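Person: Show me a sequence?

Helper:
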Amino acid sequence: MEATADPVTSYRALLHVRGFPRLALATLLVRAGASMWQLALVLFVLQRYGSPSLAGISVFLAIAPGVLVSPIAGALLDRFGRVRLMVSDYAVSAAALGGIVVLAGLHAPLAPILVLVVIGSLMNPLGTSGSRSLFPMVIPSKLWDRANAVDSMFYMVTTVLGPPLAGAIVAFSSPETAIAATAVVFLVGALTLTGVRDVHSARDDRAGLLAEARAGVVYVMRNRALRGLAVGMSVVNVGQGIVIVALPVLVLERGYGGPQLVGALWSLMGASGIVSGLLAGRLGSVGRERPMLAVGILGIGSGIAAIAIASSLGEVALGVVLIGIGSSVMDVALFSLRQRVTDPAWFGRAFAVSMHLNYSGIPIGSAVSGPLLAISTPFALGVAVAFALAAAGLTWVMVPSSKRA
């Protein structure tokens, strides 16, 4: 899995990078499974327990434990390589999801089910950080913007495919069946990656695991660009976490449709981001990261605002499209800037900490969504808009471009 010296900087050149096609396929499968799992979990809790607050807490537990252990995950990735740990994550996640299906069939209480949710969350940083830190080690730097556009497109494609599939399975069968299907997708992703040659960080320093984990946190906090991203992205993701729970509640409480429509709206969000992401990658982000981040975040905020004031399903769909476009532009700039300002020897540790600090707003937003939704759905979405506006300002002030970082 070594980078080729192909002088062509087109999207097609990525196919000639050794090991990239299988890595890309495994990443696509696992992200599709993750997008299915997120919606299936929310619908499972809403259908079985009828509580938006419990749904928000469930999403929190599916993400927050992984955020907490991400520094250790990064140290493990830099120490032992990426592929084997990614496969371990996917396999354990598949087993945990299978266990949830069994417990649900036995009508077990929510508590043991949430234990398995937490187990999957604890493994998650190995897969997410492993794949993201492996990309720049496999791909030549001249192709990073293109590769990051493809990576962002993967998120959008999996958003197109995963939620509507999960929603359809829930509508025609049950949330438990959707969770079982998610487990199968994770297992196939693990099998796809099995046997792929690993890439290790070039490094001389060795310390204890906890010392290396702490060093990863210190590295991110001392890096101006990574520190700024951690603040700006975590704040906008609080709003995104609210939307994860609020959008299904909005659709169901207003009678627009059922689980299938919820999945279709997430699919529309992904589809709208594919073209914008590819265009952003073609344009390039060097020196433009800060405005691209701010514009993308404002696009997300405008989309959430459109949903908050929507009086029809069409207006909700418009808001979803704006969120998808903004997310793709933001992601291309985010991924590329993080790669440019990080020493390759720190890719595992720095990426794990940076990614999960950025993502930490999602579980927080999901956890607080219940009390906010108890007031009203538009109020909850209005709070999400406020977080997006704050994030745009913080990003503009705190994040330098790659030319100044």
Observations:
- The radius of gyration is 20 Å.
- Residues 84 and 254 are 46 Å apart (CA to CA).
